[in-house]
């Protein structure tokens, strides 16, 4: 009897992994996130990070208070020669065997250790915090889809405290880059069904959900933006041609209407900055004015 090849065994194992039924809980949740990178949404735990820094700060503050109390107590004992020597002579401070001197050295050792730990932990915390803050908030529709899958038919995929894991929107971040192009977001939110990808196998809890490839949305956005640009330019020329012999006020009115439409399209459907909107609108209006001037001069 022929033995199966190792490659065939690996293929069968891989097919078995892809078609196996996953239990609700962490296995199904991890598979759901792995299939759609937009679902990689996690908690930031900003409140815990802030409290951790506050605790470290208070710990150093308390050590500072203890040192100040020692200094004030020794300052009152003007006749205490040992304290005066310890305050001015390092050799005396480091070799004094009295209980008070030992307490001061122990406190100074704690302060030295905490001062070494605090900047390191603070720098690390600040770097991590800046990295977290640079991440984007999840999109509203993406978060709603995740919540709907997470609590399918009011049954959460994780139980216990994790049932309310995604309630606080302000404490969530999306690891995947969020497409901020307004036109792409509009197409995905309202026309995403027409760009969905046919799923080969459906995860449990996924009824009513579908996957929209980002490349399709970007391609559709490119087509729509190109079409709108052509329509606004060609449409303006077509409308202005019959008005060559009409009054100047009518032609200026048409130019104003098309210029406002162009500015609205650029401002609402793109992420152009204000300066870019002004520049592109001025260039568009200048093209129409030059067209009318050249046409009338002939």
The general outline is elongated
Mind summarizing the main beta sheet? 2 strands, antiparallel
Number of helices: 11
Q: What percent of residues adopt helix (DSSP H or I)?
A: 55-70%
- Ranges with pLDDT <50 over ≥5 residues? 1-17
Averaged pLDDT:
78
* Number of DSSP strand runs: 4
Cross-sheet strand order for the largest sheet = 1-4
Pairing-aware structural class of the strands and helices?
mainly alpha
- Distance between the amino and carboxyl termini: 92 Å
One letter per element, helices H and strands E, the order comes to HHEHHHHHEEEHHHH
How much is the radius of gyration in Å?
A: 34 Å
Provide the β-strand percentage band.
under 5%
Write the layout of secondary structure elements.
Blueprint: H1 6-19, H2 26-35, E1 41-43, H3 46-76, H4 81-88, H5 90-95, H6 99-134, H7 140-150, E2 151-152, E3 155-156, E4 172-174, H8 182-191, H9 214-240, H10 248-269, H11 274-297
Antiparallel strand pairs: 1-4, 2-3
Helix pairs in contact: 3-6, 8-9, 9-10, 9-11, 10-11
Question: What would your notes on this structure say?
Answer:
It is a single chain. The protein has helices at residues 6-19, 26-35, 46-76, 81-88, 90-95, 99-134, 140-150, 182-191, 214-240, 248-269, 274-297, and strands at 41-43, 151-152, 155-156, 172-174. The chain has 298 residues and is mainly alpha-helical. The strands form 2 sheets. A two-stranded antiparallel sheet has the order 1-4. It has a two-stranded antiparallel ribbon with strand order 2-3. Helix 8 packs across helix 9 (214-240) and helix 9 packs parallel to helix 11 (274-297). The longest helix is centred in the middle third of the chain and has 36 residues, at 99-134. The chain starts with 5 loop residues before the first helix and ends with a helix.
